[in-house]
Amino acid sequence: MMKIKPLHFGDVTIDFPVVLAPMAGYTDAAFRSICKEQGAGACYTEVTSAEGIRRDSQKTFQFLKVSELDHPIAGHIFGKSVEAMVEAAQYIEKLGCFDWIDLNCGCPVKKVVRRGAGAALMKEPEEIGAIVRAVKNAVSLPVTVKTRVGFSPAFPDHLTIAKIVEDAGADMIAVHGRLACNFHKGDADWEKLGEIKQAVKIPVIGNGGVFTAEDAMDMVRISGVDGVMVARGAVGNPWLFEQIKDPTASLPTLGNRREVVEKHLSRLVELTSSTAEGRRRKAKYDPLQAACLHFRPHLAQYLKGLRGRRVLLQELNNLKTVETIMDAVDNVMEQNQ
């Protein structure tokens, strides 16, 4: 069994602190609900633009759709300006459906970094401190930070950033063990996560390189972090959370896979339909087609390692309804019985 204590910060308790990371394009309410049912201890929204919230963007607001299954959940925002981050945090608090607010200071995506947000903030960690301090003073919800061990070797080290985050009043920090310039390349540096854990008093969640239950246990053993964050390892394998909790848990059967694929897709259709209702402009695709298109990267991972997967992936452009997708999935399942 995974030996990890419940995690407490502010008035939030995560009983099993193995959590789903915020991932743009993936961690919407539909996928979060699947991961929660499979044992995830907490979730974050997708990376949500503070400026989008400020500009009253309907496209941005759809990222803040929350289901009853989500809790505990963080509203996860990115931005460069202190004012925008404060306004976005206050808006999230007023929604009344989030347990804490998380500030992104580590996203390496170019369009985010070009705006001076996400990982770009690590080049000038005092800006991170200013944002954390201002948001903390503006809201009553706990405030946490998601970052990396650095932007590149040329910029301030991981300990400088972590201490600034702590001194500014953050309640917890989640750290990805790779430099932002490396994106997801190379091994995550769990030793550096351990150095951060030793250097600060606030709880530390480790992120990066967790694809198996053994990975999670090794991260905790090497670094001593208070929690584990799972990102790409959960895509197509939401059962990973239960396996981390109990490594003796049985692997999903073909029937389990099919059931979760259908449940995830149907929830995504519901979510896409509900977010389309408030949209001002006509979308390129109707909600059903949009959901099916959005599901593609999930489907590719759900079927990983199965015979017939390659043929299905070649036919993805023709799979635009729940029925055609599930027929194709059934065809793959039959080849693997």
Structure description:
There is one protein chain. The two termini are 31 Å apart. This protein is an alpha/beta fold and 337 residues long. The longest helix is centred in the last third of the chain and has 24 residues, at 254-277. It has helices at 29-37, 50-54, 58-61, 82-95, 110-113, 125-138, 158-167, 190-199, 213-223, 240-245, 254-277, 287-302, 309-314, 322-335; strands spanning 7-9, 12-14, 18-20, 43-44, 48-49, 73-78, 100-105, 143-148, 172-176, 204-207, 227-230. It has 14 helices and eleven strands. Helix 8 links the parallel strand 9 and strand 10. The model has no long low-confidence stretch (mean pLDDT 93). It folds into two domains: 7-245, TIM Barrel (Alpha-Beta Barrel), CATH 3.20.20.70; 254-335, Orthogonal Bundle (Non-ribosomal Peptide Synthetase Peptidyl Carrier Protein, Chain A), CATH 1.10.1200. The strands form two sheets. Strands 3, 4, 5, 6, 7, 8, 9, 10 and 11 form a nine-stranded parallel β-sheet that branches. It has a two-stranded antiparallel sheet with strand order 1-2. Helix 11 runs antiparallel to helix 14.
